[in-house]
Design a protein that fits this description.
single chain; 370 residues; alpha/beta; TIM Barrel; 3-stranded parallel β-sheet; 14 helices
């Protein structure tokens, strides 16, 4: 990530957990305890510092159901309001990704359909869900006992090589875009038009997701973006050689620019047990730093989940395991809530400043990459 310009100086308030203060009554180091007492401590900590879940496949999963009620509970999916509350989830990024094999020229329409579905679902469950577009709105929803629903990530194909479409998607609520699978963000890296897309995303406040992106694209986005980037579904490659997991050198680079690696709770990427997930969190924290690690449930995305982490109600099991390992409350608060809030606030701050200096881009791919 490029250095913020001289007039951008987020203060410590931009990263502090002032709205959800640390609870000094909780022990900050692990002490000998029974599993029950660890779980009690996990629930207490998550009450003060809830979960911001970086990836949910719920929108596409709901398309396949003839009827559902997320307020009362829905056994056909891994996510509903009762289980979100049991898991202390207070922010949920709803993926607008498309199934593999979808015809490319359907990407824009299919993404709009999913976006419309999420907005409809949120409107139909006002007691449990609330649409959010900014860090402040996420906090407001949490204070009202609602789960803040944010739109994204979406696939880059949804932009259809048009910055105008990017702006239209942003106006409808899109907040994360995955930069892979297009001519301007490919295995070969980021093109000149791709760099212009990143700059326009910074101006709008749309976060870049690099999970699945090539090393060349990732390196260029890290150098170009004025806003911290996300890896919404990436664990540690040193522990499990999955292609979407990150090598240590990239984790270290991500830590240097204060990006965010959101570890997925999937057996394929992290392993079959809650301890395996905790191993990845330990590793990412050690290499990138405690300010650069987050959680990505990846529920309802068609993947198997580790033992004790079968649905969105299970986050306390993971936090209890981290408490057993000696994670202190400050690092846990950053993991569950604080790091994502920092990234959202920085994106909002950078966008406001950029909009004062920069008009909407009129660049076309034919002009820059032709």
């Amino acid at each position: 990530m490029a250095e913020l310009q001289d007039d951008l100086h987020p203060t410590t308030e931009a990263t502090a957990l002032d709205e959800l203060p640390l609870d000094d009554s909780l022990p900050t180091t692990a002490t000998p305890a029974t599993d029950t007492s660890l779980l009690d401590r996990a629930h207490a900590l998550l009450t003060a510092h809830p979960v911001a879940d970086g990836y949910s496949g719920l929108p596409w999963a709901l398309r396949l159901l003839p009827w559902y009620d997320l307020e009362e509970g829905e056994s056909a999916v891994h996510t509903d309001v009762p289980r979100l509350r049991q898991g202390h989830v207070r922010a949920l990024f709803c993926s607008l990704h498309l199934p593999e094999g979808l015809v490319a020229n359907r990407a824009v329409a299919a993404t709009l359909e999913q976006l419309d579905l999420v907005r409809t679902v949120v409107a139909a469950h006002p007691e449990g869900l609330r649409l959010a577009h900014s860090a402040g709105q996420v906090i407001d929803a949490a204070h009202c006992g609602r789960v803040a629903v944010l739109l994204g990530p979406a696939t880059a194909a949804a932009v259809d090589d048009s910055l105008g479409i990017l702006r239209a998607l942003h106006s409808l609520g899109l907040r994360v875009l995955t930069l892979t699978g297009t001519s301007w963000a490919s295995e070969a890296g980021l093109t000149r038009f791709g760099e212009e897309v990143v700059r326009e995303m910074n101006r709008l406040g749309v976060l870049a997701d690099l999970s699945g992106a090539s090393e060349q694209t990732s390196a260029r986005v890290l150098a170009t973006s004025k806003t911290p980037v996300l890896f919404t579904r990436s664990a540690a490659r040193a522990l499990r050689p999955h292609p979407a997991n990150l090598p240590d050198d990239l984790l270290a680079e991500l830590g240097a620019v204060q990006g965010l690696c959101m570890v997925p709770l999937t057996a394929e990427q992290t392993g079959p047990t809650v301890r395996d997930v905790a191993d990845h969190l330990d590793h990412v924290r050690a290499v990138a730093g405690p300010g650069c690690v987050g959680l990505s449930g990846t529920y309802d995305a068609g993947t198997a989940h580790p033992q004790e982490l079968g649905d969105t109600s299970c986050y306390p099991n993971l936090i209890a395991e981290l408490l057993r390992r000696g994670w202190n409350e400050t690092d846990l608060a950053l993991l569950t809530w604080g790091n994502m809030q920092r990234v959202l606030r920085t994106a909002d701050f950078t966008a406001r400043a950029a909009q004062e200096r920069r008009e909407p881009s009129t660049a076309r791919i034919a002009d820059l990459d032709g």
